[in-house]
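so i finally got all the pieces together for this one. its two components total, 473 residues if u count the protein bits. some of the lines might not be protein, just check the labels. i wanna see the whole assembly predicted at once instead of chain by chain like last time, that was a mess tbh
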Amino acid sequence: MDTGSILDPLWISFKLAAATTVVLLAAGAFLAYLLVYRKVPARPVVESLISLPIVLPPTVLGFYLLILMGPKGALGRSWEGLFGSSLLFTFTGIVIASVFHSLPFAVQPLKASFARIDRRILENAHVLGLSPFKAFFRVVVPNSVAGFAAAAILVFLHTMGEFGVILMVGGSVPGKTKVASIAIFEAVESLRYRDAWVLSLVLALASFSFLLVVNALNKGEYDGLKG
Amino acid sequence: MALRAEIRKKLNHFTLDVSLACAGGKILSVVGPSGSGKTTILRIIAGLDAPDEGIITCGERVWVNSRAGTFLPTQKRRLAMVFQDFALFPHLSVFKNVCFAARDRSLAEELMKRFGIWHLKDTRPQSISGGERQRTAICQALASGPEVLLMDEPFSALDPITRRKLRMAVAEMKGELDIPIIHVTHDIREALFLGDEIVPVVSGKVFHKWLLQFMLTTRGAGMCPDREDQGDVELEIYDTRKEWKR
């Protein structure tokens, strides 16, 4: 068994999941804040677009992102103009693709968490002199710790297991874009079952542990239903 | 410094149309039945809602002038509000709640000692009683050093004994503060006890005739507004209002 063929994809998956989580906690919090506290024009359209990656086949999303990030796509062209390199088949490219793909997994728990905050405590913060920006950090964030934790774990896990979108946008470049799920697929294709077993076990155990944390965080919310 | 407000706003069942003025060091009590628009008046003064038309000034500062398109955001109005259901920050201890916008932590400590909640300084608001929460809310509002204090049904959720104690505390405090205090209640006894001026509001309009009738009735009966055993007072208000509506 080649240790590199196990550790490299796991390390790339971990880096990708960590980067996506950091980006999406900020972007997801911003979008969730707008959706909960501000008047958003065409709200149903915006909410449907945000949730679309949940129901869209990953290959379809991957195809659109491939076009968008390709040399003729708006994002790909702008990127090349700014940095002089292509986005496709790069680590940055798969981070951007993952951000789109995991967006609802950040926005939905944060939105639910923000909506649970009593609006009057936010009004009280404004009355006491806090701008919406300061009130967000001093009132909304501390009262949404469970929502942020749930969003971080869901995004991280979802990204760790990504396959279709990554394959479309990043291909399978060893040491760059070959993530654990793609490595498992390739190991099975080339009959390297031992590698597939090890990678799958690591991913399964990591996913189970993280979900255990999410469920432990949510446990308190349903305790009141006991007769 | 005086607060002046002329407010007009269309609500679901009526149009709120009131003019108020409150001088520094005075309490203006807005009294009226549930759904008469009292809380909306406070929310508009606080900047939490916007009027359709109106002017609100605090001293020389213009907070709202609908004709000139002026609307000063809530956080720039330098006011404080005691909410009906406290609106304390659940993630902070009682002391941190009081210090939330305090300019001086020693003032926060002094207020907490005065209102008898210093021993709760490390406790979270959800673990203390309604009366203690209300005292925390009053301390929080005062510690922020406001130029205007708004109180929305501040004692409605309290038991009669706690209510009486807190009314007394607020009445004592008002002389020391040189700021306009606007107090909203449905309880005419509370308004008569606390208010230097009383503005009765019914269905969004100032109801002077009703006030006049009421004051005459209570004065004639020799009633003392801070007593809790005068159930017939509210009955009188109700009857007079029905008469007015006819």
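Residues 3-37 of chain A form the longest helix (35 residues).
The two ends of chain A are 54 Å apart (CA to CA).
anyway lmk what u think
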